[in-house]
């Protein structure tokens, strides 16, 4: 179980998701401050994750089906807000995300998000097919651990 950012770092190297320091590129404090200026104060654990792997984490994310890294997060959050505003303007029924929601990842455009309220840690949520907000994980560390476990499985199978 991954309990803190150091354990996450160690696990990424031990599982060979990350092979060297160049594979692991975090966000700068300025980049994190930019996100917080637009969306609210991020939970401490998520700020640490961005600081560790906000730009690259070796084999953790591959392909274009998952948006996860800093540049993608900025675009994805802007896009989510535009989609909601367009849907409302067109009279469509939609589930708006909470005002201080910050999308931390998207799979095929479907967002996973947290609440940017400055807590130590927080739950991770997603929208199900009916547009209902559901909890995915009780904590950001639990959520990132699921990614790590999936990639470890793919590496063991020789698929990454």
What features would you describe in this structure?
- A hairpin with a 5-residue loop joins β6 (124-127) and β7.
- The protein has helices at residues 5-14, 29-39, 44-53, 70-89, 140-156, and strands at residues 24-25, 56-57, 66-67, 101-107, 110-115, 124-127, 133-137.
- The mean pLDDT is 90.
- With 160 residues, the protein is an alpha+beta fold.
- It has a five-stranded antiparallel β-sheet. Strands 1-2 form a two-stranded antiparallel ribbon.
- 42% of the residues lie in helices and 18% in strands.
- It is globular.
- It contains five helices and seven strands; from the N terminus they run αβααββαββββα.
Mean pLDDT over the residues: 90
Bin the strand percentage.
Answer: 15-25%
Number of strands: 7
Shape field: globular
Taking strands numbered 1, 2, ... along the chain, how are they ordered across the largest sheet? Answer: 3-4-5-6-7
The biggest sheet amounts to:
5 strands, antiparallel
The end-to-end distance, rounded to whole angstroms, is 22 Å
Number of helices: 5
Order of helices and strands: HEHHEEHEEEEH
**Radius of gyration from the alpha-carbon trace, in angstroms:** 16 Å
Low-confidence stretches: none
Portion in helices: 40-55%
Secondary-structure class: alpha+beta
Q: What features would you highlight for this structure?
A:
18% strand, 42% helix, 160 residues, two-stranded antiparallel sheet, alpha+beta, 5 helices
């Amino acid at each position: 179980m991954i309990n803190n950012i150091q354990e996450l770092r160690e696990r990424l190297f031990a599982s060979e998701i990350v092979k060297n320091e160049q594979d692991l590129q975090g966000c700068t404090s300025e980049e994190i401050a930019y996100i917080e200026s637009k969306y609210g104060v991020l939970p401490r654990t998520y700020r640490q994750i961005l600081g560790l792997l906000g730009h690259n984490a070796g084999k953790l994310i591959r392909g274009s089906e998952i948006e996860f890294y800093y540049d993608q997060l900025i675009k994805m959050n802007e896009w989510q807000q535009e989609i909601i505003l367009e849907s409302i303007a067109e009279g469509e029924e939609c589930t708006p995300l909470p005002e201080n929601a910050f999308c931390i990842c998207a799979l095929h455009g479907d967002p996973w998000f947290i609440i940017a309220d400055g807590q130590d840690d927080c739950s991770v949520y997603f929208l199900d097919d009916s547009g209902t907000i559901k909890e995915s994980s009780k904590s950001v560390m639990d959520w990132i651990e699921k990614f790590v476990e999936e990639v470890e499985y793919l590496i063991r199978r020789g698929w990454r």
